[in-house]
């Protein structure tokens, strides 16, 4: 392997780690761990959204980023209507688990595609300058922001058990 190929593989590995693990931020799995089902639809202290709405927004936006990245015939969603659900709470635990499963499988699909591209810097032919690198960073940035919102909601609901690292 040449140095450029080694650097590309290392970058892909680092991006995958950034998207899945916790370092300077909480991972998705840690952020949603052990949330009481009855708290998913609560909007404490006048906050205009619930944990469920945040999780669904992550799911929808992440799926949109994946679709854009792999689909040359991508159809843009309407902002903000298509990115947010109106329901404050999931209908049942099966709906919650399905949403979590979709987030995890779509993230895995994104990372799998990322690992197989030749050049993470190359602009997509169907975009306006976006690349796999840019979309990975957008995905990380977006998910991290909303995970912070979930943690804030959990603190307001008094169900967040933070650990000092």
Number of strands: 0
Largest sheet: none
Strand content bin: under 5%
The low-confidence runs, each spanning 5 or more residues with pLDDT under 50, are none
The radius of gyration over CA amounts to 17 Å
Protein name: DinB family protein
Organism: Ilyomonas limi
InterPro entries: DinB/YfiT-like
Which terms summarize this structure?
165 residues; Four Helix Bundle (Hemerythrin (Met), subunit A); mainly alpha
Plain-language structure description:
Helices cover 56% and strands 0% of the residues. The chain is mainly α. Helix 3 (51-70) packs parallel to helix 4. The longest helix has 25 residues, at 132-156. The chain starts with a helix and ends in a 9-residue tail after the last helix. It comes from Ilyomonas limi. This is DinB family protein. InterPro entries: DinB/YfiT-like (IPR034660).
List the helices and strands and how they pair.
Blueprint: H1 3-20, H2 28-32, H3 51-70, H4 93-116, H5 132-156
Helix pairs in contact: 1-4, 3-4, 3-5
Question: Care to give the gist of this entry?
Answer:
By secondary structure, the chain is an all-alpha fold. The protein has helices at residues 3-20, 28-32, 51-70, 93-116, 132-156.
């Amino acid at each position: 392997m040449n140095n450029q190929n080694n650097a590309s593989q290392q970058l892909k590995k680092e991006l995958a780690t950034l998207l899945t693990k916790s370092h300077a931020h909480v991972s998705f799995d840690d952020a949603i761990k052990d949330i009481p089902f009855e708290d998913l639809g609560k909007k404490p202290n006048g906050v205009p959204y619930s944990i469920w709405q945040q999780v669904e927004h992550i799911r929808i936006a992440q799926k949109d980023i994946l679709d854009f990245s792999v689909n040359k015939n991508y159809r843009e969603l309407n902002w903000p209507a298509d990115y947010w659900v109106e329901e404050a709470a999931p209908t049942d635990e099966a709906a919650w688990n399905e949403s979590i499963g979709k987030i995890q499988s779509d993230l895995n699909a994104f990372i799998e595609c990322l690992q197989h591209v030749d050049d993470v810097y190359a602009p997509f032919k169907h975009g306006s300058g976006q690349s796999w690198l840019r979309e990975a960073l957008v995905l990380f940035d977006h998910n991290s922001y909303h995970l912070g919102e979930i943690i804030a909601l959990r603190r307001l609901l008094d169900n967040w058990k933070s650990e000092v690292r």
